Amino acid sequence: MTHLTVYRDHDPSFPELATRDLIVLVGHLAMTGILFERWAASHSLPHDAGSEDVLAAYATDVARLQAARGYKTVDVARVPRGVANAADLRAKFLDEHTHSEDEARFFVEGSGAFYLHIDRRVFRIVCETGDLLSVPAGVRHWFDMGPDPHFTAIRFFKRPDGWMAEPTGADIAARFPGYEGPTASPR
Ligand SMILES: CSCCC(=O)/C(O)=C/O
Ligand SMILES: [Fe+2]
Ligand code: NI
Q: For binding Fe(2+), which residues are annotated in this chain's numbering (predicted)?
């Protein structure tokens, strides 16, 4: 289930806030400039769906968000259940990094946890199917898809050339609770 946990960035053992209440979650994230919305993700996708199939199924939603927030480019990040190189894929987003522009992610299936490091706090947001989250320009963050990953996310970019990340070189991500999957108890 979607939830938010807020930590001080030097103390991963004692959260300041943990909530599954969407109104509280949206409000807390909005105070830091993060957009969170719950969308309908009602199109079932075949296991072998490609990016074009995903974008075609959600074309109306994609066009609406592009028009509203000026996103120029979209792509699809998809990790099907049971993928062979899960550990390598997981490692790709596990280090803290930034993007030079505001981006957004819409989870059309599956789940994963984003960690946004803002003003000496870490906002851990477990996203599930139907969740839309923005990552503001320059915000330090990382993403954990878990040990048994499964998700499809439409990614929205303001840059015409899509996903580009700048590593911060910090080792903060390793100190925070990872994402263990949708059946794990929330933290
Ligand atoms: C859930 S989309 C894949 C992860 C990603 O694009 C990103 O930037 C993580 O920080
Ligand atoms: Fe990122
Ligand atoms: Ni699947």
A: 97, 99, 103, 141
